[in-house]
Amino acid sequence: MNDFTYHAPTSLDDAVAALRGDGGAKLIAGGHSLLPVMKLNLAAPSALVSLAGVPGLGDIADGGDSVTVGAMCSHAQVAGSAVVQARIPALAAMADGIGDAQVRNAGTIGGSVAHNDPAADYPAACVALGATIVTDRREVHADDFFQGMFATALADDEVVTAVRFPVPGRAAYAKFANPASKYAVAGVMVADGPAGVRVAVTGASGDGVFRVAEMEAALGASFSGEAVAGVAVSSDGMLSDTAAGADYRAHLVTVMAKRAVEACG
Amino acid sequence: MPTVTMTVNGMERSGNVEGRTLLVEFLREHLGLTGTHVGCDTSQCGACVVHVNGTSVKSCTCLAAQADGAEVTTIEGLANGSDLHPMQEAFREHHGLQCGFCTPGMVMSAVDLANQNSDPSEHEVREWLEGNLCRCTGYHNIVKAVQAGAKAMGGGS
Which of A66, A70, A190, B1 is the most buried (most CB within 10 A)? Predict the structure, then answer.
């Protein structure tokens, strides 16, 4: 890992100023996405700006028809939150299935969405639930936020401060996990909420999270596992690695979608 | 070079580190606390688990700078003199180790579980140990040790 300057600002303004002061600077939250890629020299920022000392980023708030999760909330906090468990249990369960206990203690929702790993769980939850990504300067709908592998709508000096999830009528997440990393080989979040039925897939495509319109239409007509069981997705553009080939990943998407629908009850 | 200061096993410790210095490197190479091991260095194996502000984390995927000001507990901080911590004693009693490389991380992870759940089921223990890999034991005795250690701790560390 290359060396870098470490900044520990104590306000959002100072964090943004530190980013603007160094074109090679990156934010660090829990570091569980960023540090592994830095160890591989896939990222070599000249400075890291920690959000750990910035107040106001660690709260979970029940807004009635939505739940807002602060960007610095760890996966363990989301999984253990009484608010999330009561209002969006599928989100709590999804967070409880990320990595392992120690990863969940350190990794954050803000870091996960900003990193947009194509095998991360949160992008599927954000897109399926129709979440809004809140930053220091604007709000971006999940549909517009995730823009392909490791790419998002964020400007270089922009800071995710929270993610707001509309409360769905029903939702569930099913994941076929890599046995070593617990990253999704294929993960499908199905939500029946204010924006209708949404099916969002992570882990499978090289372009990151995507929706399956044909499954959404089928579920709109009949919300049942059988409705999606016959809907195949193309293996074009699917990831292929030691965990699973493209054809198998495409197959898994349909299987996970069926399981998620059936778990919605 | 930035200076970091943290409370390690109850004692205030400081050192000059690089930005890229990992917490595990600070513990092992700056403080000589080599009980915390580095196995995979990719946050999967759990040999490097320590407690930061009371919760278990993988110190190979934490910068020393991120732990600045924190309370850190390593495997060296568990025993009271020659009296083993109840979780360590349970690992000895139930033979929850063979080569011992994974043991410090196993014990630190198990103590965190026991702090939250004084009577974990076998299933809960196995789920919790997802991030702690042992290539010797087959886990059976580790699971027994964690259950016994958690009961012996009685809800307190």
Answer: A190
